[in-house]
Amino acid sequence: MEGISHQLSSFIPLIFCHDDLSRIGNPDNDPIVVTTRVADFDVRRALLDLGSAADILFESAFLQMGLKKTNLLHATLLGFSGEKVQLLGFISLSVSFCDDNGHAMSMVNFVVIRARSGYIAILKRMTLNSFRMVISMPHLCAKFLTSSGIITIRGDLRQATRCFKIAAQLVVDQLDSRESQLVVPQEGVVNVPVGGGDSSKLVNMSSTMNA
Q1: pTM of the predicted model as reported, rounded to 2 decimal places
Q2: What is 26-77 written as a DSSP string?
Q3: Are 141 and 9 in contact (CB under 8 A)?
Q4: Which domain of life is it from (predicted)?
Q5: Confidence bin at 211 (pLDDT 50/70/90)
Q6: For residue 134, what are the CA distances in angstroms to 21, 124, 172?
Q7: Beta bridge partners of 149
Q8: In 54, 56, 79, 160, which residue has its Cα 20 to 30 A from 110's Cα atom?
Q9: Largest pairwise CA distance in the chain
Q10: DSSP 8-state symbol, 4
């Protein structure tokens, strides 16, 4: 861990004020999506997620970084929409934040997964705590103390909106896929149209029921 101040953290307050607000604020309660440095790459859609228990790097970003698929694990994780996703393995990469007041870096153990998402990476609660990061959702920014000053990380509303639209489309695609699956009746069960013979609405009824 580099650049993060632990000795001064209890003596210098981290204050959020009107100057920290974006021009339009955060009217839609968007999550904090930021740009961070992962290894030698700028990751522009990284979610600061206080509710996550894992640091996640999605396969598409992993491949774009030119990283090697080492230490692969054949396992599954429960996905964000209830579907199961494939876990490709774990990898330790440096994560850094900076602004005009300083720079801080920490090594993070990412879970690399194969799943569709609007995000490129997700940073979990414990990782954010390792930076001693304090987050203000109304101000859409986070702050933490370094040996050279207070670093302020600002959320990107445009990227947050983009991630939301991608996530919404993924949910719609998943629902459309489920609705398009044919209903296969079980043995002894017949499909009966509701509202006429050409109706697309069906109910399952036992073929042995008495009239």
Answers
A1: 0.73
A2: -TT----EEEEEETTEEEEEEEE-TT-SS-EEEHHHHHHTT----SEEEEEE
A3: no
A4: Eukaryota
A5: very low
A6: 15, 13, 34
A7: 146
A8: 160
A9: 84
A10: B
